[in-house]
Amino acid sequence: MAEIIRTENLTYAYPADEGAAPALALRGVDLTIEKGSFVVVLGHNGSGKSTLAKTFNGVLLPSEGHVLVEGMDTRDETQLLAIRQRVGMVFQNPDNQIVANVVEEDVAFAPENLGVPSQEIRQRVDSALRLVDMADFVRHAPHLLSGGQKQRIAIAGVIAMEPTCIVLDEATAMLDPMGRQEVLSAVHRLNREEGITVVLITHHMNEAEDADRVVVMDDGEVVMDGTPREVFTQVARLRSMGLTVPDTVDLLDRLRKDGVDVPLTALTVEECADAILEAIAK
Amino acid sequence: MLKDITLGQYFPGDTVAHRLDPRTKILLVTFYIIALFCAKGAVSYGLLALTLAVCVRISRVGLHALVRGLKPVLFIILFTGILNLFFTPGERYLVEWGVLRISDTGLRNAIFMVIRIMLLIMGTFLMTYTTSPISLTDGLERLLNGLKKIHVPVHELAMMMSIALRFIPTLIEETDKIMSAQKARGADFESGGLVQKARALIPVLVPLFISAFRRADELATAMECRCYHGGEGRTKLHVLHYAARDWAALALGAAILVGVLALRPLGL
Hints:
The complex is a heterodimer. Chain A is an alpha/beta fold.
């Protein structure tokens, strides 16, 4: 598979007070995101996961090292628009990323900036809203929508740029469980049906279950990288970093400690139930 | 309480008045204001009042909504009316009552002035009632486009205006939240004199400002992430274009303006 984003020895230091040593938020991250994949980046607060996300489209520029988007360096200002068109970003607070006071105007904002002809903007807006299942709200005022709906509008606004990759920077953190589910299923559909690469930054373990790949960050470094199964079976290590494990893995882990022979690899509720049934049958 | 505030009150509808291009409406209101200030006699005022009445009828905006718009400026209307009434020197005095004297020109001026201000306000309100704030901003941006040549940041101003409009409900909601939070901790916004009431608002305004700045910062980042790079090379989802009805309305508006100007030397 082709790669879309690659970081090389990516280091980022937030500007510190004079005299104080700069606080390193990222310490030499080497990461490659494959085209079409669904990658979840996990980590507790202050692990550097959000900083990492913001370097992907040049909101933050690396202090050292490089970030390459389809081969373009984010430091190259002449390529910045091209990079941002390819890597769309959705942020945590839906209220602070909606620009217009009519849904369709907001979704049209990015293509308008890119100078897309009016007729094509119309098509893009309609299809983007259909993709996030918000087509019935074209003429609505965003501030009257629910959190999950607003966030889907924000996603539609990014999709209208026709990006190859969407980065969601804790986009579900402020939502209720319902809203979170709406946003996640929309994002999964985009990944599956439209082949858009998704990088989901979160601290909710359960959101990582269906991912192709899970990257765990701690103290500015990538500490684990693999399939959800590979990562979540390392229960003790995750806990030592202050992360919880999905409920299913937690249950299986406790059963194992009590001497029941179940595998840790059953992530979904169904798999977990099957594994327990099998163990009981033995 | 705060939820009741609506700025640029817009009554959605589908009449000719609503469908007119926002630029046409802005131009028409400009014509109307010029005509009002050039009107000299009863005939001109009658013509302009009739024009407004016809427009109100077409727009199907309720008359009481328009009259309600006059309420906040009632004081100014009365003030100018009274000043004109008593302090205009004239040839003949109708009433003399110590220093207060009402001259014939004073009475005339007062009546015309009050009518002028009322028509002025109702005319502009009719525009905001029938045009959504967004299209109004859009129309202004397009109308003032020519000023870009002399480096007036027209696009930036229009963008600021539409973002301000977008964030009014959000910030009102936030103010409500902060006030509730302060009330829960015993803040008192109702009692006391004006100074005390104003002072009670400080703990509301400080967090509101801080959060507004934070929002602005995040919004700017989000806009940049969506490839915003100023007005250059920007296209629009909705492109404004004049239809036949716009030309007709503009011609009619211009005719009325010319009519009023023609009546002026005659003193009508």
